[in-house]
Sequence to fold (195 residues):
Amino acid sequence: MKISFLASHGGSSAKHIISAIREQVLQGFEIGILITNNKTTGIYPWCKEHDIEVLHISGKTHPGNEDHTIKEALKTVETDIVVLSGYMKKVGAETLQAFSNKILNIHPSLLPLHGGHKMYGDFVHAAVLQAGDNESGASVQVINSVYDEGPVLLQCRVPVLAGDTVDSLGQRVRSVEGELYLNALKKWQVDNFKI
Fold:
C-alpha cells in the first residue's frame, strides 16, 4: 500500500508515519509523495532533506485546477491511501472522488465533538476548555465532503486537567497523535481498508 500525504505546515504526522515506514515499525506500506500548498513551511525542506518527493501545489501555482493537479499527482505515483497532516484546505471534489474512502485525517478532539468548519488546532482546544469537558483527545477519520463528519477509525483520549490552558491541552493531544495515526493505519490494514 502506497501512502501519499497532503500537508500545509510542519507535517508532524507525516514525518512520524514516514519515519515509521522507513524504520519498518509500520510494515506493508511504502511512501508515495507529499504535496504541500505552502512551500515556505517546515515540511517542504524536511522532505528534500529526507529524499521524499515533494510537490508544491496551490491555488497560486495552479489557479483554477489545483484539485485536478493534486488528484493527477497522487494517481501518477499510484497512491493507495492519502494521509492529511495538518492540511488546511478542504480536499477538492475530484480528489475525494478518485480516492473515495481512502483519505485519512486526524482531528484534535473526540469527534463528533468540536469538529466542523474552522475547528482546528487551538480553536478546538479552546472549545473543549470552554465546554468544560473532562477529557479530550484525537480522532483519525476517513474524510468525506463535510468537515469532520466522515467515519472515525480510531480515537485516543487524554484527560483535561484542572488549570489546563489551550497550550497545555494542545501539547497533551499532540503527544498522542503520531502513534494514534500509526495504530489507525495498522487497524485499517487488518480490516482490509474497509470502513
